[in-house]
Amino acid sequence: MWLSSRVLIFLMMFAVMPIIAKISNIVIDKYGWWDVLFAWDSVWYYKIATSGYNYGPDVVHNQYAVAFFPLYPLLSWILMQFGLSFPVAGLLVNNLAFFGAVILFYVWVQEIGGEDTARWATAALVWCPYSLYGTVIYTEGLFLLFSISALRAFDKKQYVWAGLWGALSTATRITGIALLPAFFLTAWITRRRFTAYITSFAVVCGVLVYSLYCAFKFGDPLAFLHAQRGWRSSAGFAWQGWLLMLKQIIIGAKNARLGYIQDVLHPMLFAIVIVSSLLLWRQSKLQGYSRASYGFLILLIALWVIASDPLIQIVLVFGGLYLLWHFRSSLPWVAVIYGFFSYAIALNTGLTASVDRYVYAIAPVFIACGFLFAKYPRCGYAVMGFCGFILTTYCVRFAQDLWLA
């Protein structure tokens, strides 16, 4: 699963994209051969690995590298000491970490729900369009490896390992802090020994070490938090952004921008798809869901053609949240609690941008997908095919430095 999906990504990036670029007169090698895998946050990790961190007093109008956590650029820098360039080092770290995460994820899900569930969960993880970030110069692979390792270790009561992996998670991304309440509440609910509570607080070691570095380097132990103002002016649930996205799906981007219905075609097409879905759902109850699964796929594709990116983001974020709740009784306590606290962090950043990518790094969501697709395999095949198609389009867009998440 890992190899086939990564081959597709590299094929699109290095074989198909040059053809598209030549036809469309797009420049895709501004930095070198690796430019198609280098965009947005990749630039910041490059700066950190080659020039170190920077921070300044104007955290409102300027963006500073200190907002990005250190473990990924540090590991890349270590490989650079052996003569590798940053692109090669960064790609090796992320891709090998993602490979390790996929293997460990499969093993853990197999222990939880059996082999069939493990296969579907793994397929969902690696064929999700956002798995692109497990291959490009980003931190997703590394964070998934450490967070999955920490969750599985705590689930199996291996507290020393859980504490170590948890600390490495928070040294990779601030969202790893969700492991702390997950460990603590699981220990309390399942009446675990005192060592489990100590493990909970060991998770903060990654953040604590980085905070001490910021205190000595910049005189501000919370510089990594203050620097976030360069990207966002407030925190909290961005209900206006989500409402706008919902309007874009239902009435169309143009109508949502104008504030009234000028283009009637979009809402009419949306209504047709929804009515067709309801009729198909009613029919599936009479003739069986498996026969209707491909019909739902066709309607999903039609809705995607109409609504585009907002649909993918809404489905991943809130559909994943629903699945996590629906299959909560089938998941270990630590996975459920971690999933909900991770959602709480992701949905309260004050923005809708990047929330879908943050949700992709919540591994328990894909365990829930495994249970769903193991129950409805035809639906699983259809969704995996659709996700593979979306993944190819995301490769093309990322290679052109177009915003994804």
Q: What is the typical, i.e. mean, pLDDT?
A: 92
- Number of domains in the coordinates? 1
| Oligomeric state, counting identical vs distinct chains | single chain
- Category from helices, strands and their pairing: mainly alpha
Number of helices: 20
How many runs of DSSP E, i.e. beta strands?
0
How large a portion of the residues is in β-strands, by DSSP E? under 5%
Report the span from N to C terminus. 23 Å
Approximate shape: globular
Portion of residues within helices: over 70%
H/E element order: HHHHHHHHHHHHHHHHHHHH
The value of Rg in angstroms is 22 Å
Main attributes of the structure:
405 residues; mainly alpha; 20 helices; 0% strand; globular
Q: How would you portray this structure in words?
A:
- This protein has 405 residues and is mainly α.
- The chain has one domain.
- The chain is 71% helix and 0% strand.
- The protein has helices at 2-24, 41-51, 71-80, 86-113, 115-127, 140-155, 159-172, 179-189, 194-202, 205-218, 223-226, 239-250, 253-258, 265-287, 289-307, 309-326, 333-346, 355-360, 363-375, 377-399.
- Helix 1 crosses helix 20, helix 7 runs parallel beside helix 10 and helix 14 runs antiparallel to helix 15.
- The protein is globular, with a radius of gyration of 22 Å.
- The relative contact order is 0.13.
